[in-house]
Amino acid sequence: MRRRCRLGRLLSLACLLTLLCGTALASPIREALPNAAALGSGAFRWFGLKLYDARLWGEKRSFSADDWARTPLALELNYARSLYGTRIADASVDEMKKLGLGNPAQHRAWRDAMKQVFPDVEEGTQLVGIYQPGQPTRFFRNGVAIGEVADPEFGPAFFAIWLHPRTSAPKLRAALLGKP
Known about the structure:
Layout: H1 2-32, E1 37-46, E2 49-58, E3 73-79, H2 85-98, H3 104-117, E4 126-131, E5 137-141, E6 144-149, H4 154-163, H5 170-176
Antiparallel strand pairs: 1-2, 2-3, 3-4, 4-5, 5-6
Helix pairs in contact: 2-3, 2-4
């Protein structure tokens, strides 16, 4: 009987910690987008290796996959591997270039800004980007603000990495948009 009580207490504590941690990590999304719901989620793999799980947040009633850049959104990335922040910034600009977004001066400015903001990540690190049209794009690491990119043209270009119809990860795009 004593073992069952201890086990019950441990399970209750584990549930409470899970709830508290989940609330803390989601709070930047809830603060910026109080009516947001998860629109979709999926994993990003590179040559078969899972790099991160992604979840897109937005208001379902106002979200349109064809007109996403007019909608406030949050992108949550939960990393499965260690990566250097500078590499994340470089890869992000490379993807923007492939999509034909921005000009060389913006690419340099965006790369520099991301290198200042993006930390090195390891398994279990969560990064969240918050996009609100016409405003700076803000970033959070494990629920704590880490910086922003002020250029209002950056947000649509950054989120296009995942949401543009010509993304290099079409299966992840479909999953984020909640399409089968």
